[in-house]
């Protein structure tokens, strides 16, 4: 199944009974901000990293990081999670989270190509900004949209842009031929 097909059919699972949301640009940005090992090499993961990732990946952008801050600042909330994790195989749960994130990082080949000028902004900002500037969705909807779906829509826009340039060139050539130029 390629990235285009996958974007339509991939459904997020759950971890420890918490339903994960499709991994979105908001999730990538939050985990990056929190320096999550789930976005890097998976070695050295701790139980707190798993809980943080669960709390982020069950949230929408409008929720912010309130649940994560509660986890970081409340001893009672940390004890609740620690007890919950004692009742499971933490390695399996970490593997589920790793698989959840990895599933949403499958996008069209257009992203595999290097080159061109870049501002240095994180790539997920480009995706959200592109559609937001066109007024396609609200900013919150875009930040919550699965990355693979955003990527597929972007690839189609790129193709349409190329197709539009070709069509414009054909129309211009036709007009020149019609006018005898």
Structural summary, described in words:
By secondary structure, the chain is an all-alpha fold. It has one domain (1-181). The chain has nine helices and two strands. It has helices at 3-9, 25-33, 47-57, 66-73, 75-86, 90-103, 123-133, 139-144, 147-178, and strands at residues 14-15, 18-19. The protein has a two-stranded antiparallel ribbon with strand order 1-2.
- Estimate nothing, just give the exact number of structural domains: 1
Strand-and-helix sequence, N→C? HEEHHHHHHHH
What structural class results from the helix and strand content?
Answer: mainly alpha
Strand content: under 5%
Straight-line N-to-C gap? 49 Å
Largest sheet: 2 strands, antiparallel
Task: Write the topology of this structure.
Layout: H1 3-9, E1 14-15, E2 18-19, H2 25-33, H3 47-57, H4 66-73, H5 75-86, H6 90-103, H7 123-133, H8 139-144, H9 147-178
Antiparallel strand pairs: 1-2
What features would you highlight for this structure?
181 residues, mainly alpha, two-stranded antiparallel sheet, 61% helix
What's a concise summary of this model?
The protein is mainly α.
């Amino acid at each position: 199944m390629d990235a285009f097909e996958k974007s339509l059919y991939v459904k997020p699972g759950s971890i420890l009974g918490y339903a994960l949301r499709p991994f979105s640009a908001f999730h990538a940005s939050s985990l990056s901000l929190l320096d999550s090992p789930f976005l890097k090499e998976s070695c050295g993961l701790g139980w707190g990293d798993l809980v943080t990732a669960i709390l982020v990946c069950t949230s929408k952008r409008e929720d912010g990081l309130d649940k994560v801050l509660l986890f970081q600042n409340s001893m009672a909330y940390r004890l609740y999670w620690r007890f919950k994790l004692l009742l499971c195989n933490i390695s399996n749960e970490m593997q589920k989270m790793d698989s959840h994130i990895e599933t949403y990082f499958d996008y069209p080949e257009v992203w595999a190509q290097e080159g061109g000028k870049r501002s240095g902004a994180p790539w997920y900002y480009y995706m959200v900004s592109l559609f937001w500037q066109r007024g396609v969705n609200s900013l919150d909807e875009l930040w919550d949209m699965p990355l693979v779906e955003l990527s597929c829509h972007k690839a189609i826009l790129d193709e349409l842009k190329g197709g539009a340039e070709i069509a414009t060139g054909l129309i211009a050539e036709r007009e020149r031929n019609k006018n005898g130029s």
